[in-house]
């Protein structure tokens, strides 16, 4: 801490590491570097009170730094919570959760595997889209569906037997050809495109 001054008619400068108080004015850093950040302190106000005042620049800087540190500290928990919440919401809206109540599977089945496939799940014009995160295995009994591990919250593995499929037909959905698989209980629809859709159509109708 450095104190400098002169006679009673001259200003006094008090310098503390990181803080400069100059005869009623103070700021962060050296006076010449922080001249624009200094703010006047009313006459007769103690230095301690001035330093505690929330309107001053140095306190705003410290508060901003603290908020930035807290934001980084809470980012990961909030991100994970949001991710899990969205995964849960998609499962409820699309119908995966409803299918899991009846067709949940804990073992792996044999058959032809399709990795990183896509499906549109749900009735109506806007089904929930699982794009390039689905694993589908087909055999003569039915089809097994699972999602990529990072999306697996509220999405357990499913095995839907062909006997539970009320209809499987080729359709046009939003101007694109696809295979529509209709499950009878609970009533829902799955839309598959490309090669996987053709394989599902052939497997189910061949078995039926």
List keywords for this structure.
208 residues; alpha+beta; PH-domain like; 2 domains; seven-stranded antiparallel β-sheet; five-stranded antiparallel β-sheet; elongated
Written description of the protein model:
The chain is an alpha+beta fold. The chain has two domains: 2-53, no CATH class; 96-207, PH-domain like. It contains four helices and twelve strands, in the order βββββαααβββββββα. A seven-stranded antiparallel beta sheet has the order 9-8-7-6-12-11-10. The longest helix has 38 residues, at 57-94. Mean pLDDT is 77; it is low at 11-39.
What is the CATH H-level superfamily of the largest domain? Answer: Pleckstrin-homology domain (PH domain)/Phosphotyrosine-binding domain (PTB)
The level 1 CATH classification of the largest domain is Mainly Beta
What is the name of the CATH architecture of the largest domain? Roll
- Which descriptor suits the 3D outline? elongated
Mean pLDDT: 77
Low-pLDDT segments: 11-39
CATH topology value of the largest domain: PH-domain like
Query: Helical element count?
Result: 4
State the secondary-structure class.
Answer: alpha+beta
Tell me the total number of β-strands: 12
Number of domains: 2
Major sheet size, sense and barrel closure: 7 strands, antiparallel
Beta-strand percentage range: 25-35%
Explain the layout of strands and helices.
Elements: E1 2-4, E2 13-16, E3 19-22, E4 25-27, E5 39-40, H1 47-52, H2 57-94, H3 96-103, E6 112-121, E7 128-138, E8 142-147, E9 158-161, E10 165-173, E11 176-183, E12 188-192, H4 194-207
